[in-house]
Design goal:
- By secondary structure, the chain is an alpha+beta fold.
- The protein has 12 helices and 37 strands.
- The protein has an 8-stranded mixed beta sheet.
- Helix 6 packs parallel to helix 7, helix 7 packs parallel to helix 8 and helix 10 packs antiparallel against helix 11.
- The two termini are 14 Å apart.
Amino acid sequence: MPYLKPIGVVAALIAAATLTYSHLIQADISFAQKPVQTKSPSSTLNPINEVESGSIIYTLSDSSTLTQMALDTKVQMDITGTINRVKLEQSFTNPSNEWVEGVYVFPLPTDSAVDHLDMIIGKRIIQGQIKERQEAKKIYNKAKQAGKKASLIEQQRPNIFTTKVANIAPGETIKIAIEYQQAVKIDQDKFSVRFPMTIGERYIPGKPVATPNNRAGLNTHRVKDGSAITPPISSTIDRPIKIAINLKAGFNTASVKSSYHKVSIVDVDNLTKHITLDNTKGNNQANRDFELVWQANNSLTPELALFTQQKGDDQYLMLMATPPGDKAFKQVNTPRELIFIIDSSGSMMGSSMIQASEALTQAINRLKPTDRFNIIDFDSDFDPLFDSAMPAIKMNKKHGVRFANNLYADGGTEPLEAIKYAFESRDSRSDNYLRQVIFLTDGQVGNEDEIFRTVRQHIDDDRLFTIGIGSAPNSHLMTTLAEYGKGTYTFIGDILEVKNKMIGLFEKLESPAMTNININFPMDINAEQALGSISDLYKGEVITAVYKLNAMPNKLSISGDTANGVFTKDINITAKNGTTGIDVLWARRKIEQMMHQYRAQNRRVDRDKVQADITNLALDHHLVSKFTSLVAVDITPTKPTTEIASTQVIANKVKAAKTATNAQLWMILGVLLMLVSLVISRRRVS
């Protein structure tokens, strides 16, 4: 019988062990995960990695254990045209013999305008009120100490919120219902909404600083609220979710589908569909983002849509227009310099890394010899393929593909220096090229503001495109970076989507953009646009703008610069005032634009002024923001004064397994390889 050389045994053992370990993780096997060691001693991996599967973090007076709090989630979406009104109901059930406070950190869409809160106790409904953030916290804590039931909704990030529920009695269930509004996304003639279900493990860079005892994570000197955005996660907990959708698209749909979940679709009438998550195999778990996509027949896809609303003395207008591609986006052969920044940190392990490598390979193979490119790989550190961009000739593209195929996921998520290098590696030749930076990542970081500041300071005239990879990427980071860079955000949630979605992105990268877009109103109209300006537009995209007006005009015009001259279009307006919620969308986008101003201020006095403006706007429109929160208090004390309440941070479901193969089969194969190698080694020694 042939045998392996000693070095072959070692190699086989290493390969088998690596294969087994990686696929144990991908198979979603329950065991405690240890933090990955990074190259930077000052960086702290998300401490929730140290939490045992199924365990919780809490504070009890006698240090006794507490059974995991049950949490059921129901989502009701009502989509009318281009507005989605969502009701999210969370049921907190306390299975212990202790009075507890439940704390649940959960995701919402980045553009969600949260404006309503109900606390439901039995048959009683207590409505929440919008308050300045610190005032709301004081009201909540006072009610908590007085033994009253109370709830508090706070925004930690535009896409991360916290629900606190005080004084839940033993065996009691309290329901918290919040409502929000968002605009339907339109791209390449497809309409879509996305609902995030879980928060991925976030890397929190920096040195640990003081952190409240009842928090799951750590604060650091670079992310001072790190503990507020790092809830515990577990693969073994039960986090069932139900989603029901009433879709009134406003036209006959050619197709309606869910990108990552099985759904049941019932035709209510010619223009209305009722959609629910398919529950034939038991509970659907909140472990990956839900996305619904629908499309009109080509002949019915609207080129222009206008929606108006009157509220008090103010008029609101939402405009959506698609310029004709054959006129505005004629192909031109502009040489490009593409810089790919790719995430290979530990959170990308599994299919996220496979998707990213596949996407990068496709992008490289599509480059023309007249283009230039470079690749920058990052985890705890960064590693560029070339010192600066090189011509996309056959030999260099081979180096690039080899570089992409050899990427492996480990270490922390430190994109800052890689982003700086991408911008600072411009050389004298770069001025002759259209410079496009493509950032591929799952975005699982907590230091978003640091990254935003870096991009604002260094981007110059470069364009920045982001690609979110995996089952639950950080959409706040990705969409905001794309806005700063006048680019677009592409979400790839499944390896089967890589080819089609990358082709769609390539077409945008290779087509000229419409720039300097303006919506022009008559002289007597005072129009305040929510986002201040309109981003560059690429082929297949839609011009979207929301305005607050002193009066509704009877006409307007759109203009923009293209590679083939100036594009203009005149539009007549017939005010119907039949749409509701445009005022909420305007206020949410206005707050988003003002938050960009807030982050850009260097002086405390300037930040305070912008903060005051944001607070007043959020209070006027009853919206949760960085500086305002929703609070609800039951006036009747229910907890006996002799009882001491504990605080329980409620675990999220771990995001969907990152594997594109049969993980359990690979795990078994890895173990068998180890055993065979050991047997052969012993025979060789004897």
